[in-house]
Design a protein that fits this description.
Largest sheet: 9 strands, mixed
Helix content: 25-40%
Distance between the termini: 53 Å
CATH superfamily of the largest domain: Alanine racemase
Number of helices: 11
Radius of gyration: 23 Å
Strand content: 15-25%
CATH topology of the largest domain: TIM Barrel
Shape: globular
Number of strands: 20
CATH architecture of the largest domain: Alpha-Beta Barrel
Structural class: alpha/beta
Length: 447
């Protein structure tokens, strides 16, 4: 069954019902209710090992994987990243706080953001090993914050002592390049490298920023770029890699330096998109381009960083919804569930294409094409359109695969929705890693 290949590695059909890591999904719902999100630890581990093995095979210098906090971040996931010594990409003070609470050490916290606030930057300099600088204004802000911090240190009076001193030299800076070349993705909103993108600096601005760093003794140690998310062809990365290495040569990096050609490798969300693109080919292509490019330019090999994005975690996650009503409107069949755009806005944002299986009666013959929608007061509250499904009845459970990335992290309280519980599954073990929100949780911010 092609559709089953979208689900986590430990998924099986037992008694015509879905199980993951030996757990019957129906039994989990009996305890934790719906909507419910589950993550398969074995699939997370397999994805992580696929990347680390490929890098160790194809790249002879030090290399690192960076986990994208924006895909999904909580303390349990932060803790898991450190089983593989991953860097964790944090955007702003909130994600930094979660990473720190999850035990991610300073040297593994990397901070992104196109318009970091003063609090974001202060938190980054306090807790992070690396800041990826997006623009020249941000670079000046970092310099000013460091100078203000030095003034506080030299004052040596109790009234002026900062509660949490900002380290003066423990945070490195990388400059984010705008290569002017995008990768092919399923939607323009997931492209970041094109010439009119809001992200990063032009080549001229990178050179100006590098000069500013050296004139002001700022710890500039690397170059970063990112071209898009959920792409399948690494070929457009090659000219951007060449551009970045040309800049590295002009800047004259000597000895240890860092280079990150982004990431965002794709995954299949629907059986029509199978098979998943090869991680091995992706890593090998980048490694060979960096090695050849450095040799031809007389550059030392950098510490190579990859940002796999959703391909590390998306297929580990499954969303489970309960069907509340079935409506037939002419040729159209609506399956209405208790989950939708409040926990998965990707259809509304990007027209993302998903698949689905019933939790029980999996082997039933598929018939009509249906649309699956949620309970919210929006016509855009749709999760799936035009999918062939069995005759689904009210009260049934359905399972939507590849739900591990950009669901919970993009979730909202629209219409007073309470965010679902999240479980981490292993054989013989189901850990609650995020509890279901309550009405009391919604009221905590009210005065």
């Amino acid at each position: 069954m092609e559709r089953l290949r979208l689900f986590p590695d430990s998924t099986k059909i037992e008694n015509d019902s879905l199980t993951i890591a030996g757990h019957a999904l129906g039994s989990l719902v009996d305890r934790y209710m719906t909507p419910l999100y589950i993550y398969d630890h074995a699939t997370l581990d397999f994805s992580a090992k696929s990347y680390t093995d490929a890098l160790s095979t194809h790249y002879p210098a030090p290399s690192h994987i960076t986990y994208a906090g924006k895909a999904f971040l909580c303390k349990a996931i932060a803790k898991w990243t450190q089983e593989y010594n991953f860097f964790v990409d944090c955007t702003g003070e909130g994600e930094i706080g979660i990473a720190v609470a999850g035990g991610v050490p300073r040297e593994h916290i990397l901070v992104h953001g196109v318009n970091k606030s003063g609090d974001d930057l202060k938190s980054a300099m306090q807790h992070a090993g690396t800041i990826v600088v997006d623009n020249l204004t941000e670079l000046e802000r970092i310099h000013n914050i460091l100078n203000d911090s030095k003034d506080l240190y030299s004052a040596n009076t109790e009234a002026l002592q900062p509660r949490q001193p900002i380290p003066q030299s423990n945070t490195s800076l990388w400059l984010r390049l705008l290569p002017g070349v995008a990768v092919t993705t399923h939607h323009t909103h997931t492209q970041t490298g094109q010439h009119d993108s809001k992200f990063g600096m032009t080549q001229e601005e990178i050179l100006e920023a590098a000069k500013y760093c050296r004139e002001n003794d700022l710890p500039f140690t690397g170059i970063h770029f990112h071209q898009g998310s959920n792409f399948r062809d690494p070929e457009p990365l090659i000219p951007a890699i060449d551009m970045a290495l040309d800049l590295a040569k002009e800047i004259r990096f000597i000895g240890k330096w860092h280079f990150c050609p982004g990431g965002g490798w794709g995954v299949a969300y629907h059986e029509d998109e199978l098979p998943n693109p090869s991680i091995e080919n992706y890593v090998r292509g980048i490694a060979e381009a960096v090695i050849d490019g450095c040799q031809s330019r007389g550059l030392d090999l950098p510490h190579l960083h990859l940002e796999p994005g959703r391909s590390l975690i998306a297929r580990a996650g499954v969303a489970i919804y309960r069907v509340g009503a079935v409506k037939k409107r002419g040729d159209k069949v609506w399956i209405l569930t208790d989950g939708g755009m409040a926990d998965n806005p990707r259809f509304a944002l990007y027209g993302a294409k998903y698949s689905c299986l019933p939790v029980s009666g999996v082997s039933r013959e598929r018939g009509d094409r249906v649309s699956i929608a949620g309970p919210y007061c929006e016509s855009g509250d749709i999760v799936i359109e035009g999918l062939s499904m069995p005759n689904i009845q009210e009260g049934e459970l359905i399972a939507i695969p590849v739900a591990g990335a950009y669901h919970m992290s993009m979730s909202s309280n629209y219409n007073g929705a309470r965010r679902p519980a999240v479980l981490m599954l292993e054989e013989g073990k189901a850990d609650l890693i995020l509890q279901r929100e309550t009405v009391d949780d919604l009221l905590k911010r009210d005065l």
